[in-house]
Amino acid sequence: MANIIVMGAQWGDEGKGKIVDLLTTEVGAIARFQGGNNAGHTLVVGGRKTILHLIPSGILHQDKLCLIGNGVVLDPFVFCQELDRLAAAGVDVSPSRLLISKKTHIIMPYHRAIDAAREQFKSGSEKIGTTGRGIGPCYEDKAARIGIRAADLADEALLRRKIENALVEKNALLHGLYGQEPLSAENIFAELLPVARRLTSYLGDVSAAIQAHQDRGVLFEGAQGTHLDIDHGTYPFVTSSNTVAGSASAGAGCTPRLFDRVVAIVKAYTTRVGAGPFPTELSDGPGEYMQKQGAEFGATTGRPRRCGWLDLVVLRESRRLNGPTEIALTKLDVLGGLDELRLCVAYHYKGAELAYPPQEENAMAHVEPVYETMPGWTGDISGCRAYGDLPQAARDYIGRIEELLGIPVRIVSVGPDRDQTILR
């Protein structure tokens, strides 16, 4: 059995949830290694849709162990809501098959309050487009060494003391800078206590669980996408964690020598939610068609996704940052019906032609894409189950992506359902 990293190669929303669900059959455990409930992974099995924000996408496979690693920031209220929704749908979410690392940091109500107040305080051009879920402020506390970790939920005296200490600083910000009402430590503790008591049975040693399952295979599930990485993405319009494949080791708690495969999830076109540069964005015509055909609305926020042509410059950067062994190409069916397709193969920037994105802050807002044009295809390909069933133009499109990136496309998704998949 292989140990597999699944990561997004664009700006997130590539369809990682479906591919994780698909590859779960090959492993014994699934570990989420970064991000929080700003992620939304959508699974469709037998026509029934399940949206997950924290619990790994392998949870629908009843014989698999699901792990939430130390690199995740966990909102305990959202976690419990997911537990309840899954249990109501008949999914086993008992502690015997779902484990949270004791080192995982906890998103608190004051993190959400600061996140919302900070974004509201900024002027239009300075807004990041945060989901307001408290992700960034929680990671800030982690780096400042003042965070609340999952293990703290089991020690009520310590938990109360940490909340009281945190609010000295948080209320100074909320009230003194942002003009918000100060928060009550007593109210937060009282609100959190029943949830904390519920979560304690899910706490454990995720590193030990990975070690125990490595011979049966572990799948490491990332959130967001490479170009939202806090270091390597389009800063400052990024998330607050490292989304690249290299963070799977630190975020799950295992050796980097464990990994056998890195699967890059690539949407057949490009989308982005929130603010930030997007060189191939289309404001009308094909962009509107992609948004409508692809139902491009965020699973977490419901916000419409910006759509554009596939950007090979962005994907080359993903290749050198992640070292993928293969590509899973998703939403190819959405492109059916377009007369022609374009691939961005380079950027013009400051008089030069670039194969990789410029590295200066916000420089991608000032590049001009260089396109190749290919013929499109007509007809619905969502019923195709073999590569040879695809129209020649669709196969040529896939072949050109493989040629330009030097990575084989092993999985082709032609619809949202688990069965709407071609394996090569």
From TrEMBL:
Q: Which reaction does it catalyse?
A: IMP + L-aspartate + GTP = N(6)-(1,2-dicarboxyethyl)-AMP + GDP + phosphate + 2 H(+)
Q: Provide the top EC class.
A: ligase
User: Which prosthetic group or cofactor does it need?
Assistant: Mg(2+)
The entry's active site is 13, 41, 142
**Which residues bind IMP per the record?**
13-16, 38-41, 131, 145, 224, 239, 303
User: What are the UniProt keywords, alphabetically?
Assistant: Cytoplasm, GTP-binding, Ligase, Magnesium, Metal-binding, Nucleotide-binding, Purine biosynthesis
- Tell me which family the UniProt entry assigns to this protein: Belongs to the adenylosuccinate synthetase family.
A molecular function (GO) held by this record is:
adenylosuccinate synthase activity
Positions that bind substrate: 299-305
**Can you tell me which residues bind Mg(2+)?**
13, 40
Tell me the SMART domains matching this sequence: Adenylsucc_synt (SM00788)
Q: How is the cofactor bound?
A: Binds 1 Mg(2+) ion per subunit.
Name of the protein this chain belongs to: Adenylosuccinate synthetase
State the HAMAP family in the record. Answer: Adenylosucc_synth
Q: Which CDD domains match?
A: AdSS (cd03108)
**Gene Ontology cellular-component annotations:** cytoplasm
Note the Pfam families from the entry. Answer: Adenylsucc_synt
Recorded hits in Gene3D superfamilies, A to Z, give: Adenylosuccinate Synthetase, subunit A, domain 1, Adenylosuccinate Synthetase, subunit A, domain 2, Adenylosuccinate Synthetase, subunit A, domain 3
Going by the entry's taxonomy, the superkingdom of the source organism is recorded as Bacteria
GO biological process terms on file: 'de novo' AMP biosynthetic process; IMP metabolic process
